[in-house]
Structure formats: C-alpha cells, structure tokens
Amino acid sequence: MALNTKQSPLTTVQAQSSQIKQRKRRRLQVCCQVEVIRDEQECQQTQRLEKNAKPLQSHQLFQQLRFL
User: Fold this and answer.
1) What is the largest CA-CA distance in the chain?
2) What is the rounded radius of gyration, in angstroms, for the C-alpha atoms of the chain?
3) 37 Cα distance to chain centroid
4) Is residue 54 part of a domain?
5) Quick check: helix, strand or coil at residue 53?
6) Containing domain of residue 26, as a range?
7) Is 7 inside any structural domain?
8) Which pLDDT tens digit goes with each residue over 30-67?
9) What is the pLDDT of residue 59?
10) What total of structural domains would you count in the chain?
11) Cα–Cα distance between 52 and 40 in angstroms, integer?
12) Strand (E) or helix (H) holding 10
C-alpha cells in the first residue's frame, strides 16, 4: 500500500478535483460578467437607436406631409 507516502493518490485526486471546481466557478463568474456586460451594451445600443429613431421618424413624417 502506498499510504505511507507523503501524499496518497486519494488526496491528489481530491486536490485536483477541488482545483477543477475552483476553475469552473471562476469561468462561471467570468461568463456571468460577460453576459451582464453584453446585456448592458445591448441596452445602451437600443437606447441609442431609440434616441436616433425619434428625430428620424419626425423628419420622415415632415417629408411625407410636404408631399401631401
């Protein structure tokens, strides 16, 4: 049996699995942050589009009224 050695195979496996779990958690956190940033960017883009769309719509309406 290799239980006399400083680090038994079981503890190394446990250490590796805990490291993997920590990495997964970090990845999840990063993914969540990226998603939030994407959502914020999309929100800002839609707000910009709405701001840009309002004057365009009124301008188009004036053009249409001129033709009538």
Assistant:
1) 96
2) 29
3) 6
4) yes
5) helix
6) 19-68
7) no
8) 766 777 777 788 878 877 777 766 655 666 667 767 76
9) 66
10) 1
11) 18
12) helix 9-67
Across 4-18, b (16+ Cβ under 10 Å) vs e yields eeeeeeeeeeeeeee
Token digits for 16? 């590796």
User: Which of 53, 11, 13, 48 minimizes the C-alpha distance to 3?
Assistant: 11
- Is pLDDT above 70 for 5? no
Tokens of 34: 């990226």
Give the position of tokens 């190394």: 12
Distances (CA, A) of 14 to 19, 20, 21: 9, 10, 10
Secondary structure class of 8 (helix, strand, coil)? coil
Residues counted in the chain:
68
Angle formed at CA 23 by CA 19 and CA 27, multiple of 5 degrees: 170
Contact (Cβ atoms closer than 8 angstroms) between residue 2 and residue 9: yes
